[in-house]
Sequence to fold (146 residues):
Amino acid sequence: MKNCCIFSCCPKTPVGIAGFLVRISFGLSLLFVGLTHYMTFDGFKGMVADGLGPLEPLGVLWALILPALMIVGGALLVANMYKELAAWTGGLALASIPAGMLAKPVLSGASLADMMPAALNAMIWLILFLFVVKCSSCCSGGSCEK
Fold:
């Protein structure tokens, strides 16, 4: 019989516990960032669309979609459910950030030096996301438990 916590079973190894806690923390963080983007939507929309040149209308559309992907991906990571959907939604949201930021210098002549900090920050999120997705199977005897 499994011992279960809220959302999924409790890991029993130090690495499993760490993976569990990182997954919960990362999922909540992603969810909260998505919610914050909607709460401050006008500023967020301007930040996303600004500097995209002729693609600014697509930036406005993406500003509507990106927070929803973060919210869904984050919630699913916390719940440890629908892992493929969590990976697609959270991953697409996070992967679009450095791509979008680094497209701005090409599309509108924005300063690459101004775009790099946000792009690098998103890359750090992506690396952590990879770790979280890899270890999301900890409770089911995945690689983090061994």
Notes: Confidence is low (pLDDT under 50) at residues 1-7. The helical segments are 14-39, 41-49, 56-79, 83-108, 112-134. The first helix runs from residue 14 to 39. The chain is about 75% helix and 0% strand.
